[in-house]
Amino acid sequence: MNILVINCGSSSLKYQLIDMDKKEVLAKGLAERIGIEGGRVKYEAAGKDEIVIEEMLADHKAALKIVLDSLKHEDYGAVKSLDEIDAVGHRVVHGGEAFAESVVIDEKVMQAINDNVEIAPLHNPPNIIGIEACKEIMGDVPMVAVFDTAFHQSIPELNYIYALPYEYYENYKVRRYGFHGTSHQYITERAAEMLDKDLNEVNLITCHLGNGSSISAVKGGKCFDTSMGFTPLEGLAMGTRSGDLDPAIIPFIMDKEKLSTEEMNNVLNKKSGVLGVSGVSSDFRDLEEAAEKGNDRAQLALDIFENRVRKYIGAYLTEMDHCDGIIFTAGVGENSITTRERVVDGLKSLGVEIDKEKNNMRGKEAVVSTDASSIPVLVIPTNEELKIAMETAKLV
After folding, report:
1. Residues annotated as catalytic (active site), given as ranges
2. 117: Cβ–Cβ under 8 A, 6 or more apart, which residues?
3. Which residues bind Mg(2+) (predicted)?
4. pTM score, two decimals?
5. 197-379 CATH
6. Residue 384 assigned to a binding site
């Protein structure tokens, strides 16, 4: 079975075509700058050179058409005909309370995704556009929605209800939803396999650390708590997002700086985090380089990020009777040797120890803790596309 995985952003479209029988990527790429000047589609079939098609991409449908034409191209295609694509799996960011698992897309599902646009105005509209473009071009090919929020729907009320007037939850569904769920679920399942544990019994702390970061407490293979909340702004200090802060700061700054709600939201989402503290970059590699050269604010930004990660790990350890593993994944978690080392070094009082020699690697599955460590520490590269394809194949 061949599954096409689609991940639509506001001006981009990431894709992979995966042979599920062999678990092999047949082709992958990215369409970017959709709807603006300088549009292009990157396409790479397995074992072949990357092709870059530079063309004005009027909308997602135009981008998808180029992607599909590339997949069946006579010279560099991955399939001879689109008939060889058995189903399409779509990443959808927000499923709200409507979806606790992936679903085959029909009219009712589309309506529910539309209903959640109000609480995910930046994320769900592009996802809807991608689904509609696929329907228009590919006709009756089965399609599945895989939700970033679904894995977190097992969180109990004590962790998803905010201490606000309860009618705000009843009337507007203001609650913790959590994000990066596809990644957290994938590494949970892989960690259970690596640790030789029953998925229904494994307790983990999963750390998805990248430009956007979140940590989850997994109890009995299900999410019990997570750091992101009503939106992806809550939790850790991130690349450009503030993470946790005193909410009274928001009206205070708005008053002092004469900012509108939209402008304040932009500050919190795009000008804060390690970028705001450092004044250097939202890229952790740039921060590490600047810190090595003596930039105190870059070092402070890294210190804040790592300390916040430790705080969440410590808090989540208290929510479980035991922990079978602490998992690092995503761009920073998989590739930053120093971040992993500094985070785990701060957990020595809990008996958690990192092995510097084992930890001296990037982007590979590995146990990086010492044999004496009270809790194993693992690095597991995430594979959201494969997880989406697996969910799609299971349903169709």
Report:
1. 148
2. 124, 125, 128
3. 7, 384
4. 0.90
5. 3.30.420.40
6. yes
